Amino acid sequence: MTPSEIVGVSLYSEVPKEIIDVIERNISQRDEDVIAACAHAIGHLVRRFPFDVSSLRDKLIQQAKKFGKSDFLSAAILDMDNDITHFSRN
Q1: Burial class (CB in 10 A: 0-12, 13-18, 19+), 42
Q2: pTM above 0.70?
Q3: Contacts of 89 (CB under 8 A, 6+ apart)
Q4: The organism sits in which domain of life (predicted)?
């Protein structure tokens, strides 16, 4: 999937499992834009649904480490973490 398709699913799907499946299918891609989109999708997921995203976050962080120091990914991860902190209902 493209980054915009990943984010689109996270914004418009009414089924949390669909969003989770999209993230899990794409989180291992070797594409910085896709990993950033997955980070934003995780943020949207926790904003919209009462769901524990800790395992998704952990997987994303592991994948992000493969890119070394990336300001682009760091910003996406920071946004994701802010959403998790602010909107988490767990």
Answers
A1: buried
A2: yes
A3: 50
A4: Bacteria
